[in-house]
Amino acid sequence: MTNNLHLHRFTITSALFFFLMGSCPLFSQMPIPKQSERLEQYLGFWVSSVDPKTDSIAPLPSIKMNNYPKIDHSTMSVDVFQRDGKTYKHTLIELIGYDTKTDSVFALGKSAQGEMFLGKGGFTSKKHWVMKDRDFTGRETMTVTFDFKHQTDVYVKGTDPQNEVLWETRYIKKNPKDKNIGIQLVSVHNKMLEDPKQTLKYLDRMGYSYIETFVYKDRSFYGLSPLDFKKLVEENNLKFTGSMTFYDLPTKDDKAWKKAMKWWKECIDDHKQAGVEYLTISNNQIKEITTLDELKRYCAYYDAIGKLCKERGIQFAYHNHSDEFKTIEKQVVYDYFIEHTDPEYVHFQADLYWMHFSDVDPIDYFKKYDDRFISWHVKDYEELGQSGKMDFEEYFKYSKTAGLKYVVAEVEAFNYPVWYSINAAWNYLYFNIL
């Protein structure tokens, strides 16, 4: 990885929370053990910070670096561009990859000056990566060290064979948002409780376009008013697009119905004020339902909510878990909901994980009930795309048929540290699926 002085390389209630988590397996968050997995942290699009001591980004960064996966996420092409006035010139190209035989990372590169180089090295810890560069005469030219302060922040330094610093650059991830990938905040729930501003900043840098919440309570989001939460989200270059909301089916008396409708009107007004485009609801009472008459009441309830939403310019969707695929009086609950709600008012948010968990093929539903599924929760048994059980590529062939508008990543089973898994989810969707 050769270089020179001018070329840098580069509360909600616990009951509700556990209902959302369901029986999805939760793994212990282990350190990132493999060289190949650690290397994936370098994937994506980066810009240089104002200076190596800060993580701020200038309107026109001095350097841009685009790292695209090749073959898999442990091999990538690296293209570096340096600002020259108002334009950027291509100054360095590399191929970096992990070698299974030597358990090492190798690089082959060429600078704008025509100098080619070979690099070899690896991670000495989960956050520290060292590469030794040689030219094609075999002469050692430079040692490059990478210190990952976060999945979105890496400090890179080049030193000569005498250990004199040649250059240093701090890169901040700035992934693009052209594929409109959202994230359900249950994936980073504890992070949001600890530091919502920092959490949203990281999600922005990873390339997520919008968020979906599940914490609306007492007319607030994470303790903030609708306007204040909207402001916080937008200050971090995200959109507050979706929200899961919960109010059980009222009893049959008029008073209970009016109370429920009053709650929903306030809920919808709050979300409209916050800029939300769609609301979803799920049902944790299906286990108790035994008759079609009860299902009919739920359909009428969902139609009423959906009508209120539409009147205020918001879409309403039903979110499935696994109970929807049980049978009542020879009718599958989910099918009944779809067939007996008004498509003008009620859409559906397909949770692909729960469908697969229930031995249901989402594609069958997308083909049978076309244009009803405006949103998908894209979730796996492990990190997104890693279990090998779910064929996301095949599912997304039917996105247009389904009527998909909102792709929402969701990670609830973590093998690795949270931010590694959340970053990997964006990588998978952006580079492999969309």
From TrEMBL:
Pfam families: AP_endonuc_2
Top-level taxonomic group: Bacteria
Residue ranges annotated for the Xylose isomerase-like TIM barrel domain, each copy included: 202-421
UniProt xrefs under InterPro entries: IolE/XylAMocC-like, Leu-rich_rpt, Xyl_isomerase-like_sf, Xyl_isomerase-like_TIM-brl
Keyword Isomerase: yes
Gene Ontology molecular functions: isomerase activity
Protein keywords: Isomerase
PANTHER family xref list: HYDROXYPYRUVATE ISOMERASE, INOSOSE DEHYDRATASE
Protein name: Xylose isomerase-like TIM barrel protein
